[in-house]
Amino acid sequence: MATPTREGTVLETKKSRVKPPPLFKVLLLNDDYTPMEFVVVVLQSFFALSREKATQIMLKVHREGMGVCGVYPRDIATTKVEQVVSYARKHQHPLQCVMEEN
Ligand code: TYC
To answer: Is 98 helix (H, G, I), strand (E, B) or coil?
Structure first.
């Protein structure tokens, strides 16, 4: 599309061919061993969630098998997964955290 300006020049607006960066869901998976309180602390610490929201998500994962902790660009999602898994292993819990393209 061509838009004339007051000065008589013409600005060409071109359709952008760059796609927005893909977003990734970070998911927690249920297991039989990780304590509920530990999962709530993980959700509060690494995903900046309130105690109430963290508890809701933990219970959803416990009942339904998995739940979304947040949605992020690739690098941030990768870092969140690494931080959660590393923290869980340090405390000897089998908690699993994965990412999935949105
Ligand atoms: N199922 C676990 C228990 O009963 C609690 C739990 C919730 C574990 C969420 C992992 O991602 C998880 N202690």
So the answer is: strand
Q: Outline where DSSP puts E strands in 1-102.
A: 2-4, 10-12, 23-29, 66-73, 96-101
Give the distance (Å) from ligand 1 centre to CA of residue 84: 14
- By CB neighbour count within 10 A (0-12 exposed, 13-18 middle, 19+ buried), where does 87 fall? middle
Residues with a CB atom less than 6 Å from ligand 1:
28-32, 34-36, 39, 58, 61-62, 95
Q: How does pLDDT run along the chain (102 residues), one tens digit per residue?
A: 444 445 555 666 788 899 999 999 999 999 999 999 999 999 999 999 999 999 999 999 999 999 999 999 999 999 999 999 999 999 999 999 999 999
Q: Give residue 64 CA to ligand 1 midpoint distance, Å.
A: 10
Cα-to-centroid distance, 51 and ligand 1 (Å)? 16
Report residue 42 CA to chain centroid gap: 13
